[in-house]
Amino acid sequence: MVAHLVRLKLTLLRNGFKRSPWQLVGVILGGLYALGVLVLLIAGLVLLATHEPGIGRMAVILGGAAAFLGWALIPMVATGVDMTLDPARFVTFAVPMRQLLLGLAIGGVIGIPGLATLLAALGQAAMWWRQPVAMVAAIPCAAVAVLTCIVLSRLTTSASTTLASSRRFKDLSGIIGIIPLMLLGPIIIGVTEGLQSSRDFLPSLADTLAWTPLGSIWAVPGDLALANWGVAAARFAIGAAFLALIAWLWKISLARALVTPPYNAVTRRAGGRLGFFSRFPGTPTGAIAARALTYWFKDPRYGASLISVPLIPVVMFFAFSQGGDFSFMMWLGPIMAFLLAFGISADISYDNTAFALHLTTGVSGLADRAGRVVACAVFALPVTLVFAVVPFFWLGSWELLPGVLGLSLGTLLTGFGLSSVVSARYTYNVPLPGESPFKTPPGSTARMMIVQMGGMAVQLLLVLPEAGLLLAAMLTGDAIWSWAALAVGLVLGAVLLFVGLRAGGKWYDRRAPELLQAVAVNK
Amino acid sequence: MTSPDAWPPADSGTASPAPSDYAEPVQPAETAAVPPRAPALAVRGLAKRFGEKIAVNGVNLDVPAGSFYGLVGPNGAGKTTSLSMATGLLRPDYGQVWVHGVDVWAQPLEAKRLMGVLPDGVRLFDRLTGEQLVTYAGLLRGMDRETVAGRVADLLRAMDLTNDAGTLVVDYSAGMTKKIALASALIHAPKLLVLDEPFEAVDPVSAANIRDILHDYVDSGGTVIVSSHVMDLVQRMCDHVAVIANGNVLAAGTVDEVRAGASLEDRFVQLVGGRNQAEGLEWLRTS
């Protein structure tokens, strides 16, 4: 039975590759990358252990504890990481619990993260090559450690299934997951700086962790190398007991999950609250704007891009602030306008087949295009204005403000016009309604890249006039260029928006049924 | 009300001779001016190919105004494809469609104003509440806010969804989702209703309520087309029926004409074929 489960996992993996060769390429590239990192890691550990055994031991404990935490927490945040062997799918089969547990655990090792962890754990045995006892003991320790990783991840996922099956939690975790991802750069900078200043902190942290389940199993070979037999035995006992404990907890939660199918608790609500629908005019355009705006706040796929609005300045600040020169913050407005306006370029792809409603009701292309632009403009316009003006309070000199405003608004209006054309003509596969915003549908990357890159290139071309005038203002220091950039940005932007709405609307009217077919392919 | 109108004049009503080869489609009927009493839906030589597969192979159909018309056929027969082409959702390779004399593909906006459509297998804007979704459908039709609000309340009550009006559609059960989609199709009081599998996953009480609504609608002069797998339902509910298989209309007419004395189910199996004799699963016998 265990062999069956492992074979099932392998078959699923292979069939996935058959469906899309690109996925195979992705796995191979990911595997090569992981392998390279592994080789470097193990080589570094061996070198470190040879010259400074104390630091090597510390690194293994800290790294091992981090691996445990990663395995436990990442699957909870990133929903749908690897549910190919979702226990819920075995509900109708009479698989003995013990074998199901073992099969799922071993199946969990198959895959890049599992294999990488396994190799890294085995590889750290090599750093004890001078002490044969420690090296031999490191191998069973590694096995216990890898199993602990897998069981930890299974335990946290199965414990959170009741939560995860509620739609609200799924939506939220999808959005919240993006925050640490976007702030990864600043976080790394902060952590490295913190570590540099408190070098003494790490050894004591490692010593403490070595007595907790997170680090104990990783500390055992080091203790053996130092001939601390009693301590080694005690720490191994802690690690093994922890594994036994979480395996037991996993068994209980799995047994419960198998007899309690996921239930989405929904509170029934009577009507009466139309939300944005009562605030926008009662016309087709107004209705589409209200619907699109509702989606910006209720659909995690839109929410993920909305939440990046406050994060982008933070990322920019950390990325460019090293020199102490803050003039780059001036470009915040145009960049924000660029990103926000381009955000609606895949609107119909996001609708998926729900778009059929627009088709059966016979909405005109112009109303459809305009409604989506209005919805985005409701928040994009104030955000762009704020981001264009606020940096100048900081910089203190106001001469370039009109020009930056011109470029920001010009970019926003032009982008709206361009997006109206792009989304009426070029669809590509996006995460389906209800899916994680991070999911990339297989086989869509090339087309998506072409559409997005092409669209952005055209966008850059179209805002060249106001950008050029702003540049002239910066070089000459003459305010007239700055004001000219504002005028050109507003007028040219408005004209391009109008042209984009008309052209996109006409395109939409002509080929709305084909659009529906194109988005229906992705399901 | 039950006599099929002879419009357009070519071979209407009964089983249509399907074109033997897709490459030689039947000639669509002449684009005549709107005659005095056009059928609610007239389809001529409708054909669609997906890659190698010919999904719809020259379908001719006349749905008389004021009829309750059933469209039956096995899985993959081309029902949904035909209805998608008839309602303006999918562009046909060949053929023409008129709704009350208005060419669907030449004057789509006029034709869509006459039709209420419940497509099968498409998503809804399910991050809206049920109430918002139906309101949205009404406003998209260009109706004014007061009329929409009144009709939304009526429809939600008729569909027994008043207590769930403020729940997001994504949290609805399958049957509730069908009902809210049906409400969205009814909001503008269309002259023709095209419903693809309207009773799938709908509970018996709601289904009976919906049938009452549809019968009232037909009695007041409206026309309903439903596709279904459930022969029994079609035989009880509809006055006309067409049998589709492999992209062709095998029989069409009043229910009594088509079933010719037998039950509709027996007649259907006889027309479509493909019944397996009960053999091969001897081991399934428990004793």
Strand order of the largest sheet of chain B: 6-7-8-3-9-10
Total of DSSP H or I helical runs spanning 4+ residues of chain B: 9
Count of alpha/pi helices of chain A: 23
Give the strand tally of chain A: 0
CATH topology of chain B: Rossmann fold
Radius of gyration of chain A: 28 Å
- Overall shape of chain A: globular
Shape of chain B: globular
Low-pLDDT parts of chain B are 1-35
What is the C-alpha radius of gyration of chain B, as a whole number of Å? 20 Å
For the report, how would you describe the main beta sheet of chain A?
none
The helix/strand order of chain A is HHHHHHHHHHHHHHHHHHHHHHH
Low-confidence stretches of chain A: none
Structural class of chain B: alpha/beta
List the quaternary state of the chains.
heterodimer
Distance between the termini of chain B: 55 Å
State the domain count of chain B. 1
Descriptive labels:
heterodimer; A: 523 residues; mainly alpha; globular; B: 287 residues; alpha/beta; Rossmann fold; 6-stranded mixed sheet; 4-stranded antiparallel sheet; disordered N terminus
Structural overview:
Chain A is 76% helix and 0% strand. Chain A is globular, with a radius of gyration of 28 Å. The two termini of chain A are 33 Å apart. Chain A has 23 helices and no strands. Chain B has one domain: P-loop containing nucleotide triphosphate hydrolases (Rossmann fold), CATH 3.40.50.300. Chain B has nine helices and ten strands. In chain B, strands 6-7-8-3-9-10 form a six-stranded mixed beta sheet, sandwiched between helices. A four-stranded antiparallel beta sheet of chain B has the order 2-1-4-5, covered by helices on one side. The longest helix of chain B is centred in the C-terminal third of the chain and has 16 residues. Chain B is globular, with a radius of gyration of 20 Å. Chains A and B meet through helix 14, helix 18 and helix 23 of A and helix 2, strand 6, helix 3 and helix 4 of B.
